[in-house]
């Protein structure tokens, strides 16, 4: 099983980035997918989630209206479009997969290694 994030980088405030999470080794379209971030010195923060078929999404208040989560089940890939970035968005961004049995918990079946997003002011 692998979840491989990419697309992070250094961007100025107000800029945009698109993160990707390529999945392999499990039935991607059977899992609820999420993005979670962790800023330096802070605990993990849930960012956004999308259901298995991609027609239901949720966002943390801190990113609502600026970030868009999506998935392409044919490509086994999860995305996070991030617009209007600000320095508070600086963090390591992880994608996580949850099976039905873990929905409603803070536990995930699989995690990626993370991709760094740094927003300069």
Account of the 3D structure:
By secondary structure, this protein is mainly beta. It is 0% helix and 51% strand. The chain has no helices and 11 strands. The model has no long low-confidence stretch (mean pLDDT 97).
In a nutshell, what does this entry contain?
The chain is an all-beta fold and 121 residues long. It is built from no helices and eleven strands.
H/E element sequence: EEEEEEEEEEE
How would you state the average pLDDT, rounded?
A: 97
Portion in beta strands: over 45%
Our Rg estimate from Cα atoms comes to 13 Å
DSSP E strands, number:
11
Envelope shape: globular
Proportion of residues in helical segments: under 10%
Q: Give the low-pLDDT segments.
A: none
Q: What would you call the structural class?
A: mainly beta
Largest sheet, if any?
Answer: 7 strands, mixed
Tally of alpha and pi helices: 0
What is the first-to-last residue Cα distance?
A: 37 Å
Task: List strands and helices in order, with pairings.
Blueprint: E1 2-6, E2 9-12, E3 17-24, E4 32-38, E5 44-50, E6 57-59, E7 67-72, E8 77-82, E9 91-98, E10 110-111, E11 115-120
Parallel strand pairs: 2-11
Antiparallel strand pairs: 1-3, 3-8, 4-5, 4-9, 5-6, 7-8, 9-10, 9-11
Looking at this protein, list some descriptive labels:
globular; seven-stranded mixed β-sheet; mainly beta; 121 residues; four-stranded antiparallel β-sheet
